[in-house]
Amino acid sequence: MKIAVIGATGKQGSLLLEESIKRGHDTSAIVRKDNGNINNKAGLIVRDILDINYSDLKEFDVIVDALGFWTEETLPLHYTSLKHFADVLSGKENRLLVVGGAGSLYVDKELKTRLMDTPDFPDDYMPIAVNMGKAFDEIKTRNDVKWTYLSPAANFVADGVRTGSYKVGGDILTLNSKGESEISYADFAVAMIDEAENAKHIQERFSVVSK
Q1: What 8-state DSSP symbol labels residue 202?
Q2: 21-41: pLDDT as tens digits
Q3: Does the predicted model carry a pTM greater than 0.85?
Q4: Taken in order 121, 126, 129, 130, is the CA torsion positive or negative?
């Protein structure tokens, strides 16, 4: 397959890039700036986010949006950039896979209370959860794009080990065998590239948790 990772210099993006290359896919990094640390086995496209157009993406079977924004002024880019990519890919066969957030997962079977709505949700993560939630609310209305939105577990462990296995959930926060909601960035990358290969969740959100 031909796979592009947008935001491939970030912590999650770099793991997605490595996972894709490891499996033998023709993989490219799409970045705003070349930091010199990108795997030399990957192709490289340097482009500002909102300048990415279909000529940049048309050759790829799958485009993975691994962008993350943390500052007050950049937080809205979670939804403006995702809308831009969706508009670019509207009506096309290329698939768009999105590194999502856990805050928009529901904690009840009635699908009324999201994780970010619970009293113990950390204040520090609320701005990013709200903006990522808005991005998800918008992408799930798009039936003109072959999108998939993947949410991690509540405890998303940046330096966790790669076990190569995970448990799949849906819109409801799922717990592992220890009763915990946790997954490593590395295992999240495994799940995302599995989805790139198998296309089991087109135009839907799914979630993953460690076993």
Answers
A1: T
A2: 999 999 999 999 988 889 999
A3: yes
A4: positive
